[in-house]
Amino acid sequence: DQQVKQNSPSLSVQEGRISILNCDYTNSMFDYFLWYKKYPAEGPTFLISISSIKDKNEDGRFTVFLNKSAKHLSLHIVPSQPGDSAVYFCAASGSNSNSGYALNFGKGTSLLVTP
Amino acid sequence: GAGVSQSPSNKVTEKGKDVELRCDPISGHTALYWYRQSLGQGLEFLIYFQGNSAPDKSGLPSDRFSAERTGGSVSTLTIQRTQQEDSAVYLCASSGGGDYGYTFGSGTRLTVV
Known about the structure:
The complex is a heterodimer of chains A (115) and B (113). With 115 residues, chain A is mainly β.
């Protein structure tokens, strides 16, 4: 079963505007959340993360918001740039995981930023 | 090397054949993970190695899948008697241990025909 869900397979945003990518999870034991960015023919690269003790983490143009009661997180990119066009994966893990730091990934959202 | 290296980058194999996929992690990284991404799906955890400890194989989908890590460095993922549903991109990642900041390789795209 999919414990991390990204319900929007794709998103198109104009350059300079805000991109909002959403992610929902079902496992209440998850306590660490990450966003990865993936270009074609490359492996995913880490973008930003948030611990469950926080509700917001900001890094430059990227901000992740966490709503634990709703089991929802979102990634905001502002302003969006054409180079941000990629597939964005939401991932989560629980500190009680027996698999080291193995992550549960969503299916990804393909972001297209148009000039 | 500077990053995680995977080979081959592409592999086409006939149904029923065995395949081996290789991962060279970043030098000194103690943790190594294998994931796969099937078409339209997210990344699926397969197996985890940490140092010299026994690997966590809880994500392997069947007993046709196995992996080893020699000398705490290079890892090989073996799929025996491949099936069409094994077609996916197989991704390897390594980390220095103790955090989620791991580095992925570019993956091996496996196509079973």
